[in-house]
Specification:
The protein has about 200 residues and is α+β, with helices and mostly antiparallel strands. It has helices spanning about 1-10, 15-30, 30-45, 50-60, 105-120, and strands spanning about 80-85, 95-100, 125-135, 140-145, 150, 160, 180-185, 185-190, 190-195. The strands form three sheets. The protein has a five-stranded antiparallel sheet, covered by helices on one side. A two-stranded antiparallel sheet has the order 5-6. Strand 5 (about 150) and strand 6 form a beta hairpin. Helix 1 (about 1-10) packs antiparallel against helix 2, helix 2 packs antiparallel against helix 3 (about 30-45) and helix 3 (about 30-45) runs antiparallel to helix 4.
Length: about 200
């Protein structure tokens, strides 16, 4: 597993998933110094990867400061991450969906197709999330809350006013279809992932 991850990193040095896989494999093999260095590499790619941070702290017996906002992550590809979930438990249990796409029309279609179901869940959980995060290589990630863009027609049907939701162009290297990513310590698969921890 270490060799496979290292081969991927040779081809794409800012692949966060490969970097994390390499660090985990070294950790499992008991190579603690190499694993700590590898987790440090993960944090260079994504300073907000809280799992890599916690594991490095444990291996080195240190406490690292929280990263400031506005730092760039170095994911190699551009992507849109849409989340429409409800927090249903104090342990972080969620219900809803997360989508990973590189095409804005797919993001809009997914949001519109799940809007009524997501709205029906309001008030039945501890908190909720409805937003889009866009990563463009070389730029700070941009997050947009969709709640303010949700309106209703005269007949009461909900809709999203997409003129209020700019989806930045992903640049020259959008995420290839089917490729998963790690973002802020979480693994996301291309397309839709349903969460139902109830």
């Amino acid at each position: 597993m270490v060799r496979a991850a290292e081969r991927t990193l040779t081809l794409q040095g800012s692949d966060n998933l490969a970097a994390f896989s390499r660090a985990c494999a070294l950790h499992w093999l008991g190579e603690h110094d190499a694993a700590a260095d590898a987790y440090r590499d993960v944090l260079r790619i994504d300073p907000y990867d809280h799992i890599a941070k916690a594991r490095m702290e444990q291996l080195e017996g240190v406490e690292l400061p929280e990263p400031p906002g506005g730092l760039f992550t170095r994911h190699p590809h551009g992507f849109h991450l849409l989340e429409m979930t409800h927090l249903i438990g104090h342990s972080g249990s969620t219900k809803g969906w997360v989508w990973l796409f590189s095409d804005p029309s797919s993001v809009r279609s997914a949001a519109e197709g799940s809007l009524e179901t997501w709205l029906a869940g309001l008030g039945h959980g501890l908190d909720h999330e409805c937003g889009i995060w866009t990563h463009v290589p070389g730029s700070a990630d941009k997050g947009i809350a969709l709640r303010e863009a949700i309106h209703r027609t005269a007949e009461g049907r909900p809709f999203i006013d997409w003129s209020q939701v700019p989806l930045p162009d992903l640049g020259l290297d959008p995420l290839p279809a089917g490729q998963p990513i790690r973002r802020q310590g979480q693994l996301h698969f291309f397309g839709v992932t349903e969460h139902d921890d109830s």
